[in-house]
Amino acid sequence: MLPTQKKTCATHSNNQGFTLLESLFSLLIVIIIASFIPLIFQSYQSILKASDIDKNYEWQVFINQISKELNTSKQLAISENSITFISSDKVITYEKYQNMLRRSVDNKGHEPLLTNIKQSIWTKLNDQQLLYTIIFEDDQELTARFQINQERS
């Protein structure tokens, strides 16, 4: 009978590299993260569009408010940065304050009407027309013309 020999194998453990499975898993994670990038840009664009809609909405509300004040006031005082409507029971002033246009009634408190503005200019063109020009911080310029009744000064 022959003596039994034991076979011994030396196993060498190599933990320095990546296996194919680990590489595929890492690639899968990168692809999943990269797939969200277009969604992020799309949501950013929709936020910008919504803020532009808000600016246009503010502008339309402001124009309606000024038209109402012109129709109900008895007197009108205009300077370059402010306009004052004087009626029988109250004094309403619209003025630029920091980066907004605000409305105050009888010099008590204020209500912001337009925000993110850089420049605000009131101009009385003649006895019948009032021009308002506003420049926003993003350099967008808007202009509105208002008709003034003859009995106002």
UniProtKB/TrEMBL annotation:
<keyword id="KW-0812">Transmembrane</keyword>
<protein>
    <submittedName>
        <fullName>ComGF family competence protein</fullName>
    </submittedName>
</protein>
<dbReference type="InterPro" id="IPR012902">
    <property type="entry name" value="N_methyl_site"/>
</dbReference>
<dbReference type="GO" id="GO:0009986">
    <property type="term" value="C:cell surface"/>
</dbReference>
<keyword id="KW-0472">Membrane</keyword>
<dbReference type="InterPro" id="IPR016977">
    <property type="entry name" value="ComGF"/>
</dbReference>
<dbReference type="Pfam" id="PF15980">
    <property type="entry name" value="ComGF"/>
</dbReference>
<keyword id="KW-1133">Transmembrane helix</keyword>
<keyword id="KW-0178">Competence</keyword>
<feature type="transmembrane region" description="Helical">
    <location>
        <begin position="20"/>
        <end position="41"/>
    </location>
</feature>
<dbReference type="GO" id="GO:0030420">
    <property type="term" value="P:establishment of competence for transformation"/>
</dbReference>
